[in-house]
Amino acid sequence: MKQLRGLALLCAAIASLMLTAEPLRAEAILEAVQGSPDAIGENFAIGQRVYKQTCAGCHDSGLSRAPQPPVLSNMKPQTIYRAITEGAMKPMAASLTDKERVAVAEFLSHRKLTDAGSTGPTHMCNARHAAFDRKAPPTHAGWGYDLANSHAVSAKAAGFTRADLGKFKLKWAYGFADASRARSQPSLAGGAIFTGSHNGDVLALDRATGCERWRYQARAEVRTSVLVESWTSGDSSAEPLAFFGDLAGTVYAVKAFTGEKVWTTRADSHNAAVITATPALHNGVLYVTVSSLEESSAVDPSYVCCTFRGSVVALDAKTGKEIWRTYTVGEPQKLKDEDGRDTYGPSGVAVWNTPAIDPGRDLLYVATGDNYSQPATELSDAVLALDMKTGRIVWSHQATEGDAWNVGCFVSGANCPDDAGPDFDFGSGVILVKSSTGRDLVLAGQKSGVAYAFDADTGEQVWKRRVGRGGLAGGILFGMAAQNGTLYAPVSDYGESEDSSWPASPGLYAIDIDSGELAWSAPMANTCRADQKACIPGISSPPTATPEFVIAGSDDGRLRAYAADTGEVILNIDLAREWETMNGVDASGGSMSGGAAPIVDGGQIIVASGYGQAIKMPGNVLLVFEKE
After folding, report:
1. In this model, does residue 4 exceed pLDDT 80?
2. Distance of alpha carbon 410 from alpha carbon 413, whole angstroms
3. What's the burial of 86, exposed, middle or buried (CB within 10 Å: 0-12/13-18/19+)?
């Protein structure tokens, strides 16, 4: 029997426009995928008509390479407009009037096209602040701060102690134009802060002032960090590259000091493929994980579900040429469901987290999501070890069997798999650590609310510890941190769950790495104000750990620091408010979710604030706090 889930939450994969925490209606979910008339006025009806008549034949087909609506919704209206006026789609749109072209661009992007040539206001640096400091190579090796994905920094690198936490003030704020979320974790190099944005702009901002050193426009939203290639301090000839991916499935390499494009490549030919996780870089090879939005496309009962296959791809960092590709699921086959409808399977098993790199074993570790359609397969909801040279899967450990699920289970059920699973993806990047006995462990956190430790050589489960109730949008979502023998696991736990035996447990949990025993817990009460819509308690983004404290952004829009030894809250700042920005853009903070952890470095705390999806508060600001 197909399971029709309760409508109390929205899957984070949907490009949600909902800003209230009311129970969701079926039409609200469809609106989140298809767009709302309120956002663009009369052009909604015009754009909808044009899309159905001119575009849907290719873009609504799961078998075409044309980007699907959930992917298009993450593009700028300017990008879509250019594609149909002067780009690849110009012949297909030749019969349209300019008004119709504008309308369909707005309908698909859910945003107004105020100026087809505009990329938002600029605030460029003067000569004094435009130069990159060649004596300041990247502070981190990547998204996880190191190759092991620890999200940990030393006391020296942090530049301040626990006692200093009450001495911080805002240095500057930068507002992202035409944006309602800020999900790109900032990265630091050359005296600059690199970041992506909802509107597709990738920026190098002067760390001292926030002015723009350069700006690059990607095809679609950039949720990844900007991974900056390291260089030898003081090397005057260094030409490091910066890497990132977008929600159109494109991977980019640009010159880190100028923003000039070096290469771009589509990570996957599927029309719903996206890049949500920051790639990892090691020895000239860029390791890219590929996810998709096809799980959301299945909400349409007429959509033939599903054909996407998750993968890990190794690219030559200098050229973008593919070295190897490993799929996480076999080739989908044409099948019939119980009602005689065409369907495809197996599918899914997306990889939406950054690999952890193990140079000693020549392995990389990733974790996977669920199947989108049946049959469910052995690599879904699993942790994998891959040979870095060939992509061969050395070992795998599946945490949840039989998990086939898609967003169709929310609404009509037409594409919902028989005996649908619980949607217990691994979204959190795994962490490679060493126990006190010298044993290397791979730590993983799952949407089930369970943290695991696996032997790095064999994949054998060493321990598991449940810290949350889990659920479709609950449990451990986007990342953890580990330092000094302790794993710090954040828990969201918002929404419905089939498991009533465990209470919702939003908060932060410290787990002993050797034993898996709970060291301390810091449950989070609901402190949302009555006037705050889309405000919920919980932590779904990765924290940053120092030897003395752990700092985390929360779903309720607050930045908190916890004592590393006890879990006591020692800093609590409300970021969900309006901020005066140095570039003059109206900006506010919101929920902190997705893969963006607070950056702690050199006496500063740097935070991207705003999520605007899955019943979490929107925002469009980058905040830099500095110790007084």
Report:
1. no
2. 7
3. exposed
* Dist. CA 535–CA 5, nearest whole Å: 22
**CB 296, CB 33: distance < 8 Å:** yes
Report whether 381 contacts 429 (CB < 8 A): no
Residue 449 above 60 pLDDT? yes
Q: Are strands 587-588 and 578-579 parallel, antiparallel or unpaired?
A: antiparallel
Bridge-based pairing state of the strands 578-579 and 518-523: unpaired
CA-wise closest residue to 314 among 302, 297, 326: 326
Mean pLDDT (the chain) is 89
Nearest to 226 by CA among 208, 213, 209: 213
The conformation of residue 38, written as its DSSP 8-state character, comes to H
Cα 624 to Cα 605: distance, rounded to the nearest angstrom: 6
Q: Which run of H or E residues covers position 345? A: strand 342-345
The whole-angstrom separation of Cα 367 and Cα 430 is 7
Measured CA to CA, the distance from residue 371 to residue 421 in angstroms comes to 9
**Going by DSSP bridges, is the β-strand pair 311-316/322-327 parallel, antiparallel, or unpaired?**
antiparallel
In this predicted structure, what is the pLDDT of residue 112? 83
The pLDDT value given to residue 71? 63
What does the alpha-carbon distance between residue 273 and residue 266 come to, in Å, rounded to a whole number?
9
Residue by residue, DSSP assigns 135-190 as T---SSSSTTSSTT---B--HHHH---GGGGGGEEEEEEEEPTT-S---PPPEEET
Query: What are the structure tokens assigned to 208, written together?
Result: 């001292």
Which of the 8 DSSP states describes residue 564? T
Q: Are 508 and 567 in contact (CB under 8 A)?
A: yes
Distance CA(199)–CA(80), nearest Å, equals 12
Least Cα distance to 356 among 596, 138, 144 occurs for 144
- For residue 290, which of 348, 356, 218, 345 has the smallest C-alpha distance? 348
Q: Which of 294, 237, 246 is nearest to 267 (CA)?
A: 246
Domains of the chain by start residue, with CATH: 137-627 (2.140.10.10)
* CA distance linking residue 94 with residue 370, whole number of Å: 41
The whole model's pTM is what?
Answer: 0.89
Residue 473 DSSP class: T
